[in-house]
Amino acid sequence: MIEENRRIGRPMCRSANFAVVLRVAQWELDRVAFRLPRGEVSRSERHRLADVLTELADHLRDDEG
Q1: What does the alpha-carbon distance between residue 27 and residue 15 come to, in Å, rounded to a whole number?
Q2: Dihedral angle at the C-alpha atoms of 15, 17, 18, 23, nearest 10 degrees?
Q3: Radius of gyration of the chain (CA)
Q4: How far is CA 59 from CA 22, 26, 32, 54, in A?
Q5: Confidence (pLDDT) at 10
Q6: What's the predicted TM-score (pTM) here?
Q7: Whether the Cβ atoms of residue 55 and residue 2 lie closer than 8 Å to each other
Q8: DSSP states of the chain as a string?
Q9: 23-54 as b/e, with b when 16 or more CB fall inside 10 Å?
Q10: Measured between alpha carbons, how far is 19 from 39 in angstroms, rounded to an integer?
Q11: Where are the domains of the chain?
């Protein structure tokens, strides 16, 4: 999973933290999408992507309110 974001100064607001989660998901998806057709994605990398997407889904559900 994505570790708690490191902060300098004051804590990030909720929307900034959500933006970081979105970017991490985007980077992981881009990386896997590029490498998958070449057979370069391991099982552990697929599991990491699943964890990132699960965290993104959790954030999306939390922001429904």
Answers
A1: 18
A2: 130
A3: 14
A4: 9, 14, 21, 9
A5: 73
A6: 0.73
A7: yes
A8: -PPPPP-SSSPPPHHHHHHHHHHHHHHHHHHHHHHGGGT---HHHHHHHHHHHHHHHHHHHHTT-
A9: eebeebeeebeeeeeeeebeeeeeebbeebee
A10: 30
A11: 14-64
Q: What is the pLDDT of residues 25-44, one digit of tens each?
A: 999 999 999 999 999 999 99
Instruction: Tell me the C-alpha to C-alpha distance, in Å, between residue 40 and each of 2, 10, 34, 51.
Output: 22, 39, 9, 19
Q: Which residues contact 49 (CB under 8 A, 6 or more apart)?
A: 28, 29, 32
Q: Are 22 and 13 in contact (CB under 8 A)?
A: no
